[in-house]
Amino acid sequence: MMPSKDIARLIEIMAALRDPKTGCPWDIEQSFATIAPYTVEEAYEVSDAIERDDMVDLREELGDLLLQVAYHAQLAAEQGLFDFGDVVETITRKMIRRHPHVFGDAVARSARSAKGQWERIKAEEKAERAALRAKLAGDANPANTANGADRPRHLDEIPAALPALTLALKVQKKAADTGFDWDRPEPILEKIDEELAEFAEAIASRDRDASEAELGDLLFSVVNLARFHEIDPELALRRCVRKFRERFGYIEDQLDTSNRSLHSASLDEMEALWVAAKRRSAPSPD
What we know:
Elements: H1 7-17, H2 25-29, H3 32-51, H4 55-78, H5 84-98, H6 100-103, H7 106-110, H8 117-136, H9 143-146, H10 164-176, H11 186-204, H12 208-228, H13 233-256, H14 267-281
């Protein structure tokens, strides 16, 4: 089998890998659940390539991410749920529907900023998803999944599997749509001080469960402060981690010049090199 720019070849490869008789033993054993972590990892690697402005890596990582889509579609096809073509059809339908000012008729194009248009489109999509879930579950009445105990709540559309900082940010933004929000930063800072004190108390009590809960409250409050100042906490923390790695790498490089390892250096030595690393990365005065 030869490589190709045709998406059909990728689907053929995925089917061959999953073939019960001639496929790859590892691939045959996989399921939606076991593949999901790799899907998340590949998405992060795409983001990392973009941050590094490495277009060679980006091309490869986008391919790896596309493979994840093909993988999940193959798993679904084997169970008679949907296939890759259904995935493509679903997203193309969504994009066309959500952009009537681009793909619609003259009336739709002239009503580009019509109030309530976006909400109407989203409502239609939710109804369609409810009907599809009912069909897959063998329920002839979509209303059984759209109402009652299963009625979608205001925050339900936010995926729970998002990274915690991003999840907190999106939940807060969605809640703020209803007016449930701070109107100035001072109370948020006071809340952070309050949560920090409660975390310290929990730590002092040696209650691990309470400590974890209080730390979560503290982090949630910090995300609130970041959101108020229009800072993405996920990006801010990634930037901090990248800076830490660079400075720690400098320590390792400096020790390596004298044929020493990180484990052989004292804390004072590493601290001195850390300060030097900070000076190196500090902006030069004008």
